[in-house]
Amino acid sequence: MIFPIDRFKARKTPFYYYDTRLLNATLDAIERELDGFDNFNIHYAVKANANPDILAIIANRGFGADCVSGEEIDAAVAAGIA
């Protein structure tokens, strides 16, 4: 996919762009590669990005959270990561 730069010309900067299709494709690839392995869990490092919408996508896929602070734990729990 070509980056849709024209969609962003009118936006004020700075802003964050999250490609959720790419995120879901990456999560799909992780799940495919790890299918059949039962002795571990996958955890997302919340310190990398605590955006609630991103965490919700990760939570809906059943991934866990790697947290190092109370704020990260709160963000993960609020997003539905158990």
From TrEMBL:
Question: What InterPro entries does the record tag this protein with?
Answer: De-COase2_N, De-COase2_pyr-phos_BS, Orn/DAP/Arg_de-COase, PLP-binding_barrel
Care to name a GO molecular-function term for this sequence? diaminopimelate decarboxylase activity
Q: Which UniProt keywords apply?
A: Pyridoxal phosphate
Q: The organism sits in which domain of life?
A: Bacteria
* Listed cofactors: pyridoxal 5'-phosphate
Q: Which PROSITE patterns is this protein grouped with?
A: ODR_DC_2_1
Keyword Cell membrane appears in the UniProt entry: no
Q: Does the keyword Zinc-finger apply?
A: no
Q: Which Gene Ontology BP terms does the record give?
A: lysine biosynthetic process via diaminopimelate
Q: Where is the Orn/DAP/Arg decarboxylase 2 N-terminal domain?
A: 31-81
Q: Which Gene3D superfamilies match?
A: Alanine racemase
- State the PANTHER family in the record: DIAMINOPIMELATE DECARBOXYLASE (PTHR43727), GROUP IV DECARBOXYLASE (PTHR43727:SF2)
Report what the protein is called: Diaminopimelate decarboxylase
The organism encoding this protein is: Candidatus Avibacteroides avistercoris
Species classification: Bacteria, Pseudomonadati, Bacteroidota, Bacteroidia, Bacteroidales
